[in-house]
Amino acid sequence: MSRIPLDPATAPAFPKAAKVSLHDLQLRRNVKHATNVIQTKRQRVVGERPDWQQLREAGRQIREHALAYMDEYLEQFERNCEAAGGHVHWARDAEEARQIVVRLATEAGSREVVKIKSMTTEEIHLNNALEAAGINAIETDLAELIIQLGQDQPSHIVVPALHKSRHEIREIFLREMGLKHLGEEPADLAEAARTYLRKKFLTVQTAISGANFLIAETGSVCIVESEGNGRMCLTLPQTLITIAGIDKVLPRFQDLEVMLQLLPRSATGERMNPYNSIWTGLHENDGPRNFHVVLMDNARTDVLADPEGRQTLYCIRCGACQNACPVYRQTGGHAYGSVYAGPIGAILTPQLQKMEHAQSLPYASSLCGACYEVCPVKINIPEVLIHLRNKVVKQQTRGMGRLNPEAVAMKVLGMIFRSESRFRAAQKFGRAAEKPLVNREGWIGWLPGMLGGWTQARDLHAMPQQTFREWFDAREKKDRGHA
Amino acid sequence: MNFRRTALRVALFITCYNDTLFPETGKAAVRVLERLGHTVEFPSGQTCCGQMHWNTGYQAEALPLVRRFVEQFRDAEAVVVPSSSCVAMMRDHYPLMAGELHDEALKRDLNVLLPKVWEFSEFLTKKLGLEDVGASYPHKVTYHASCHGLRNLGLGDGPIQLLKSVRGIELIPIEGLEQCCGFGGTFAVKNADVSAAMLADKTKAVIDTGAEICTACDNSCLMHIEGGLHRQRTGVRTLHLAEILAGEER
Ligand code: SF4
């Protein structure tokens, strides 16, 4: 738990951070419980769609097409949004995006802004930038509010406070809202948040939102949510600033037909979100008076340029891969050192960091494939993980890096596998070399160096005295002898 | 027993780790295939499918192993592999790798060869259409569905049908069948703590079944599960599916 935002550039490597999480039993219980609940709901609503696989394929193709023509669709979005009275701003990176949003909020004259849950704003640490400019950001999504009041960080892209139990949330509310009494039922907690937020909705004049989708054809922005607090932010304040990654674009309004079936089912296990907001520019006597959209690249075009990494951008941030991931389910999200945790984080974060940071993340997976199986837009996450591992290896084995023990071992093994006689010799050698480590019952309980990770929690049986091929050779010889 | 099949020339790709660490699995596979009337060949130049290198990011080391595999097995009538993850490696990645090598001939060879490559249980159920292979194994057994078998190969309940037909067996389903055991190749050493946590869940599920034996179509998962079960001195053992199917009435 930390007020310091999750930053891949400074976060410890995944294995190290994971170790800390693994010792937090309460956290692990919370994460397992919450992911189980969501997965069960998801399975139920996905199961009632006999055409689920076709829907996934349709989703995949829509996203693939949208990203292949992203430049055109973004410009179309800009034209249509501005024609409807919105202002579109382009931000090359996080720094530019922060500057634009801070400037717009300052120009609106607000010392306070209400915020709709947005992972993009978390990605660029927007709240800190606002705070530095003397603007107080108030999170209105219940989970984000819990995170903010608890001086914590989000651990899941859909359910940011998934690592907190109801009991812990009650503690935070009691402390931070200065309450004397508070029940522990979800309704009690929701009521406390409602009372706290209602005042803000009625007074704060500027709102900041993210976007689930940008629709090129109409210049509309779409946001889905569960609580209706987003709807408040979209309708009550005078100024609305939306910030979106450029990957969020969809070509046509009609594409929502597919996306709004895939997203809620995958994200929260609902057939439809309770609140679906789609708005286009400004409307007289209704909603905000000023509307800005900040379109942010922040390394997304770099991801797009890599044919194998590209599919990462098809993501619609449903979080299904996180709930299904056996690694995430053990560690929770903070160990990933980024607001994007779990399988999607393991592929997205290092790419957004231009492979300069977070190199341990592509290895934070057993490649079990559970993520790919549930992904509503069929992102082959294991394949991208392997692709990124290759990039990491290439980086790490440049120059002197060639001498790192893993790279040397892999080189040697590669050489061995390229020749039958070397392979046979290595098998014999292995048998002899392991002897000092084998106990009387024929087991190894301790291994040196890198391999020590194995024997930390597992034994290894000793190599049998005869390999399969030696057995097969002997058998053939015997057969020939008989003939 | 009469299985009324034309005898096939089966080339066994044992895989590097079965060859070295689990020869009994190979022997059992030979026994089952021969009992069913097929001949088994062992192209001796075979080594490794390249999975470990490929999955860890050492693509350059993995690429030559594709060519090696094709050279060794191109003449086979059928290739049988007692390791689901190695078959997944070949099916899912070899075509990609040939693409990376820009080798059209290799691509063509793979198009011919890959449809003839079968994971051991899949060869029995899908190629031969069998469920009962005449085995006997009077023990309590639980089946672990390895991730690659489950998701990449789509083995479904093929292995379970094979096991159900074994004489005397008591097959007990495991809780969380689709959950990874936490092996993941080099993941088990690179992320040893998380891997161990996943393993703890899996060994608990195995123990809860009350089975004496945990079986699977992949010795790499079994080596991992076995390592945990032995460390905890549970007395529960692991055994490749082939070794159960090789069991005969005494
Ligand atoms: S990668 Fe797929 S499953 Fe994961 S959050 Fe994105 S869309 Fe959802």
From TrEMBL, chain A:
GO molecular function, one term: metal ion binding
SUPFAM superfamilies: alpha-helical ferredoxin, NagB/RpiA/CoA transferase-like
Every 4Fe-4S ferredoxin-type domain range: 305-327
Pfam families: Fer4_8 (PF13183), LUD_dom (PF02589), LutB_C (PF11870)
Keywords linked to the UniProt accession: 4Fe-4S, Electron transport, Iron, Iron-sulfur, Metal-binding, Repeat, Transport
GO annotation terms (biological process): lactate metabolic process
Superkingdom of origin organism: Bacteria
Protein name: L-lactate dehydrogenase complex protein LldF
UniProtKB/TrEMBL annotation, chain B:
GO CC terms, sorted: cytosol
Pfam family, one: CCG
Residue ranges constituting the Cysteine-rich domain according to the UniProt record: 10-91, 141-225
Residues that span the membrane, as ranges: none
Any one GO molecular function term: oxidoreductase activity
Signal peptide feature range: none
PANTHER family noted in UniProt: LACTATE UTILIZATION PROTEIN A (PTHR30296:SF0), UNCHARACTERIZED PROTEIN YKGE (PTHR30296)
Protein name as it appears in the record: L-lactate dehydrogenase complex protein LldE
Organism, as annotated: Silvibacterium bohemicum
